[in-house]
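[Automated response] Your request has been received and processed.

Submitted sequence:
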Amino acid sequence: MRAHTEQFKLVAMTLVISILSALFIGLLVDAIYEAPQYEDFCESYNYAEPYRGKLAEQQNCAYIQTEEERQCYKDGGFPEYNYDVKGCGTYKECNFCNKEFNDATNIYNRNVFFIVAPIGLILILFGVFYGIGFIASGFMFGGIFSVAYGTIRHFSGMSKVMRVIVIFIELVIVIWLAIKKLKK
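Generated structure:
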């Protein structure tokens, strides 16, 4: 019974070390390297489209989507309109703030990946070579969680080929480390 209690304590400590080390890395990066804020790219506008359908008929609004509006949507922007006293809108300009915010967020996520994934690999290495078993295992799991976190942050911004390459490299590194650790 006592052996089970001690084993449970070691497993619990391993889990706590792994979770806290991964959280520490994620929160440290977030505290030092701030994510782009939507408000820094987009002011609060009225993005409502002009009246269409029955409401447009009631307001006597004639709306025909222009080629400029269609191109705006294709280019990743959203049209802004000037509104008259009846609420009928005419195309004013294309606003790309949301696209610019998304581009900045993709760059941020890529940079987080390049910061967090190597730190996670260092934690895994530390776990491989550290002498106390449950602490080593905790750091190894924390490193695995950190690598996964960094990869997930940037995954949608990667091309399909880059996703395969990154996962393959991470898998090779982890398998190599496992062989080094378990060989002993």
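Summary generated for your ticket: The chain has six helices and two strands. The mean pLDDT is 85.
If you did not submit this request, please reply to this message.
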